[in-house]
Amino acid sequence: xxxxxxxxxxxxxxxxxxxxxxxxxxxxxxxxxxxxxxxxxxxxxxxxxxxxxxxxxxxxxxxxxxxxxxxxxxxxxxxxxxxxxxxxxxxxxxxxxxxxxxxxxxxxxxxxxxxxxxxxxxxxxxxxxxxxxxxxxxxxxxxxxxxxxxxxxxxxxxxxxxxxxxxxxxxxxxxxxxxxxxxxxxxxxxxxxxxxxxxxxxxxxxxxxxxxxxxxxxxxxxxxxxxxxxxxxxxxxxxxxxxxxxxxxxxxxxxxxxxxxxxxxxxxxxxxxxxxxxxxxxxxxxxxxxxxxxxxxxxxxxxxxxxxx
Length: 309
Hints:
This protein is an alpha/beta fold and 309 residues long. The protein is built from eleven helices and 13 strands. The strands form three sheets. The protein has a six-stranded parallel beta sheet with strand order 10-9-8-11-12-13, with helices on both faces. A five-stranded antiparallel beta sheet has the order 6-3-4-5-7. The chain has a two-stranded antiparallel ribbon with strand order 1-2. The longest helix has 16 residues, at 274-289. The two termini are 20 Å apart.
């Protein structure tokens, strides 16, 4: 079978090689999945560059999620998903391959009416958006949330969740042409982070306070969002796309009793029980069908054509 392999951390495409590998054999409690699709997420790119929070050992195969069909397995847990189309959650061995081995518990059967392209992106972004908004924050109806990177996949999901669940979003983007995109996806207000955007944000909030913030950029922008939050405001940091540290004035934390928290999906999942994850998967499925947690596909490529992806 063919797989994309990282031999050394580095830039793309130099760090990747397409290799022919032996077909893997599942052990007890494992399944072999014939992969159909696996997306390219920012977390995959960071891992290839050696900048991810927890790096696997080299050589390795990238790809944290995907969709495929279970073709072989061993044990009762494997037999229950035999022949089924499943979402493949694979933070260990990687999904950018024609076949993968995963624990049977990480093969999640999905309804037939969900397209392959959406099931391929079933977990990383949808679970992050949903967990931060409804599990970590539990944002009340009518409350304000300020978010950076609002035109990203997660940002657009958060905007749509706001429209669905009744909270308001103040969305921050880098370019004017992204404003309509976010607004059309459910954003309450969208601002370009240039000039006196903070004053404009204060005008929008008026006498109200925003107590919830999401930041995937880092750097001074994340710090500016923290300054906009009201008393006991909470800023959840789930990315660092700027590559810059988050400068924080301790006075902001002391005077307003504000909190800055980190959110990393794979670490969050470790603290959740099976029932919590089952309910999360069920909710993601429902919101995918409703068009709330859908992912826009940039293009579809065969593994042999990986350099054009």
